[in-house]
Amino acid sequence: MISVAAIVAAFVVIPGTHADIPYPDDDPFYAEPVGLSEFGNGAVLNSRPISVLGLPLPVAGWQVQYRTTGSAGEANADVATVMVPMTPWTGAGTRPLLSYQVAEDSLGTRCAPSFALRGGRDFSIVNTILDVPFLAEAMRRGWAVVVSDYEGPQSRFFDGVNSGRSVLDGIRAAKAFAPLGITDASPLGAWGYSGGAFATLWGMQLRASYAPELVFSGVTSGGVPSDIAAIARGVNGGYQAGLAVLILIALARNDPGSGLIDVLNDSGRDLISREATACGGDLVVRNLFRQVNDYSDEPDLLGQNAFRTAVNRQELGGWAPDVPLYLYHSNSDDVIPVAGFSNLVDRYCALGANLTAVHSGVPGHNAAALAEALGAMNFLSDRFAGIPVDAGCTVR
Q: Which residues are registered as beta bridge partners of 332?
């Protein structure tokens, strides 16, 4: 999730990017190809080489367009950025592939990580830039990385099935993309924080039914968005109230059958139209201390049945991922209350998951992302090296 710290970070890095990169909606590379539905999930539709971040880095990079299936069963053409260090792999076995999910948190494709990773210049790149240190460390360790625009061409924030399928099909596409050098013997891992954790864990929940041929050595996720209603209530009226606005717009737009649009007033319906392509950062800046009740004539909009219906369809925990998990969350997260994380861990454990859950003493959402990253990376390294994990749940 975006924060004030993220906004400050954007101004530090934006000058080093390129202003001449077109937004995805204006870039023919992203256009849906003719006959899309005839391709299988994960099929590579198009590709092009890129300079990662528009810089002369020792990393080979490409954008890969691939076919996936949205939550309503529709064929979608998504885009992933695949990267590999130019140095030979010196570890045991074959080079691992990490699927890294950036917290896209967007209502429009200009906020997609592929735009930022190609060197696009815009305030919309902030979430991707915040994750660059983690991507760099993954490649320093020699791993290949795939970063999918998992919200898809309609930018469906908090659509679990849509996001999870796109993550899995992005991995399929990366494996099928010969220049990346990934084989069936390559260990697979996945990692995401905050909104990226939502997509990662939805992918793992769907793995057995949607992509059973993908076998993961290990998966890490932190700052996990569980209990979406509690997230919205916690930030509503505060300096990050734009997150509650983002959640409201996304759920109303993605799930018209919930009736959420019907409980909005004229201001609420105008909001959905006006902010149709906004990024989370845009909404944070424009909605400081906003109350979402301003957008409905019904009292307690976040308590309305329509809102609860839309939220419940997207909550994690319906199934337990059948992959080794390492989950972490700050006990004093200022964006995503820790109670939802604790309940999700309990749910996964009751369903038979094998996981390690870390309740971090590091205060704050973004601070914990940085401080706990080493544990997440080392968990993945150990799994890629074939070191087994103990069965069952370890919570600390």
A: none
